[in-house]
Amino acid sequence: RKEVEQDPGPFNVPEGATVAFNCTYSNSASQSFFWYRQDCRKEPKLLMSVYSSGNEDGRFTAQLNRASQYISLLIRDSKLSDSATYLCVVNRYSGAGSYQLTFGKGTKLSVIP
Amino acid sequence: DGGITQSPKYLFRKEGQNVTLSCEQNLNHDAMYWYRQDPGQGLRLIYYSQIVNDFQKGDIAEGYSVSREKKESFPLTVTSAQKNPTAFYLCASSIRGGQTQETQYFGPGTRLLVL
């Protein structure tokens, strides 16, 4: 099983649709989870952290299922500006009390007028 | 404006040449990181530094070198030993580094192409 696995897509959805992405991770000891957004040929930007209880930020909702080791991102009322690649990011222990991040390959979303 | 800057935006390397990518941050962050991104791939960690004058190898350090002489600066040298250097190079920083719930912030990246 890959460390962080995502469906690469693309997900082509009409404006106003609801779309959900899932991500699975292999390291059960992972403690921190994030969704980053990356526009074409740009740097990744933090979209939201994912907390155990789930969290919401406007049209975006993130959920964590530790038992099944997956993270989800739900986008409601999709906008054209949501078109991007969404990266699932999970932390991992790298030794000497330090943690690093492992990035998924990303899921591409295209919102169509 | 606080942030992370990387230069140049595009860099061309000839065979056998060493090139250095610049990364500067004015966020007062202790930790800095270098990642490489290839098309359709996830980011892979090259080197990271949690404090001045100290740095650690990441997952793909071979063919790369770094220095951390100042808190604000973390340059990456792509040496001639790196046989496949064409990629998008991203520098990031975080407040302390290595903590469990810590966010990393990225610079705009440098695209390196081999002539």
- Rg over alpha carbons of chain A: 14 Å
Number of helices of chain A: 0
- The global form of chain B is globular
Distance between the termini of chain B: 35 Å
Q: Give the CA-based shape of chain A.
A: globular
Instruction: Give the SSE order of chain B as H and E letters.
Output: EEEEEEEEEEE
Gist?
The complex is a heterodimer of chains A (113) and B (115). With 113 residues, chain A is mostly beta strands. Helix content of chain A is 0%, strand content 58%.
Notes on the structure:
The complex is a heterodimer of chains A (113) and B (115). Chain A contains no helices and eleven strands. Chain A has strands spanning 4-6, 11-14, 19-25, 33-38, 44-50, 55-57, 60-65, 70-75, 84-95, 98-103, 107-112. In chain A, strands 2, 4, 5, 9, 10 and 11 form a six-stranded mixed sheet that branches. A five-stranded antiparallel sheet of chain A has the order 1-3-8-7-6, with no helix packed on it. The model of chain A has no long low-confidence stretch (mean pLDDT 93). With 115 residues, chain B is mostly beta strands. Chain B has strands spanning 4-7, 10-13, 19-25, 31-37, 44-51, 54-57, 64-66, 76-78, 87-94, 105-106, 110-114. In chain B, strands 2, 4, 5, 6, 9, 10 and 11 form a seven-stranded mixed sheet that branches. In chain B, strands 1-3-8-7 form a four-stranded antiparallel sheet, with no helix packed on it. In chain B, a hairpin with a 2-residue loop joins β5 (44-51) and β6 (54-57). Classes of the chains: A mainly beta (113), B mainly beta (115).
